[in-house]
Prior knowledge:
Mean pLDDT: 95
Strand content: 15-25%
CATH topology: Nucleotidyltransferase, domain 5
CATH superfamily: Ribonuclease H-like superfamily/Ribonuclease H
CATH class: Alpha Beta
Order of helices and strands: EEEHHHEHHEHHH
CATH architecture: 2-Layer Sandwich
Strand order of the largest sheet: 1-2-3
Largest sheet: 3 strands, antiparallel
Number of domains: 1
Helix content: 55-70%
Structural class: alpha+beta
Radius of gyration: 17 Å
Amino acid sequence: MGTRTKTGWAVLVTLGLERGRPTVLDRRRLDLVDDQEQAFAYHHAATLPLEDATSFLRDVDALAVERATEGVMATVAALRAEGREPAVLTVPVGSGSLPDDLVTVLGNHTLLHTGEGLLYAEALAEAGEAAGLTVVEVPAKELAGRLAADSGLGARRVDDAIGAAGKALGPPWRKEQKEAAQAAWLSCLSA
């Protein structure tokens, strides 16, 4: 299983390998929050008094974890009903980190984006752990290169295989789905 998080939502793709080539077993979108204010949680928190910002971020985090867990658990249950046993969830993560001081975070626009990216990636990681999966976090910038190297196929053949898997499945098969499929393929190689 592999994910690709976006602001307030994520794509979850599950692959199987048949003769070394990926086949999509499941693809779904997980809505992790209810609205734009929650989706851009750190941006909204920056407009609030510190105490309210802390509470708001805690609530959004809890909601994102709850929704991610529901989505991952539902996917695992559907796969098990088909006789499949998912084992690994790969979560691409950004390269940034947040200082412990929320005032610093809320006062820096770049850190607002970092916070939102981390919030959703961490929610998916927690969901994978709750589902009993081994969670592998991979720097998003390294995902394609690592998959090309670990599969032994090289970047072009990996891209072709991901494209073919998506074509067989049908739309949507945009960048988000392809990146989640890369993460899922890496999960297959890690299992």
